[in-house]
Protein: Transposase, IS605 OrfB family
Amino acid sequence: MRLVYPTHKQVSTLQAWLGLCCEVYNAALDERKSAYRMAGVSLSYESQCAELPGCKRVRPELGEVPSQVLQDAVKRVDRAFDDFFRRVENREVPGYPRFRSRSRYASLTFKQYGNSFNLLPGTKGNKGTLVLTKLGHVKMIMHRPIKGTPKTAIVKRTQTGKWFVSISVEIPKEEALSSRLPEAGEAVGIDVGLSTFAYLSTGEAIANPRFFRAEEAAFARVQRKLSKAPKGSKKRTKKRKVVARVYERIGNRRKNFIEQEVCKLMKRFGLLAVEALVVRNMIRNPKLAKSIADVSWSQFFGRLQAKAEEAGRQVVRVNPAYTSQICSACGHCQPMPLSVRVYECPHCGLVIDRDHNGSKNILVEAFIAVGRHSRVIPEAPGL
Structure:
């Protein structure tokens, strides 16, 4: 993502575009629901896009928004229904498409490089220029040079009023393969936790930074000030941005931490074994919900999988059942309450950290899953 600096006039224009696109999104959603309820007809993306020129005649202000940006608002409705039917087919929680408020519609998609948007390199350092149709030149910070052919640009507004642009590019397959990391034959098991962020089967522990806990006092302070501000006042709007800034700071630190740790793991290991945790079920525990949300396992697993595909690494997800209760040396299984942090095996005498033991078992299960190991059944004591 690149940080952009639109002028006050450009910000007003972008805000207006977001509001109009939100109206188009809600109107398209309402039309689909009404057509099916009243006539049993399922409208398509193409048929709704064909209505946009007529909508512009009725609402002339829609003509101020680039056509491709309006088409993307309709496309989002189409994708929302596609995702809904996919979840129904897979017997997941369906989540029927909902109407959006203006605060929840915060991005604009420019779909065609050279037509709806363009990029101009800057003359000083990492500064550049983003050229958007019907808006003009917008100052931009180029965090790194763009490799490949730009395809789309998504301009996004954060809750704190900052503006970013995400540019997707197409890279030739040969260039993508050549940029991959060198081969790594070492494998590692990763046991995530709360006392430590993760414990590796190599014996290394990644400390849990607890970003939300560190900001909890500051968050409580700004939240109290927000609750005291009169509803509908400018002061309340200002305090709401302060609260959003605290959330943004926590999110940025957490994302930076996860990106750095995933990058280190990608450089060292070729096979990474993790538990197939269902975090949304674990977070229902009222005593651990805040800590589980703060450690952000889902974000870590997601970035690990995405970076592994990009770097040519292998991520194996294994069943987490009994990984903390089985001895990694002899296979003996015994109950292990969460309060017990050291595994002491009465069968072979192994004494090891609970999470370290779990990470070793996770790695063994991954080897079995990929066919590099066979399961060994331990002998009973005294035989």
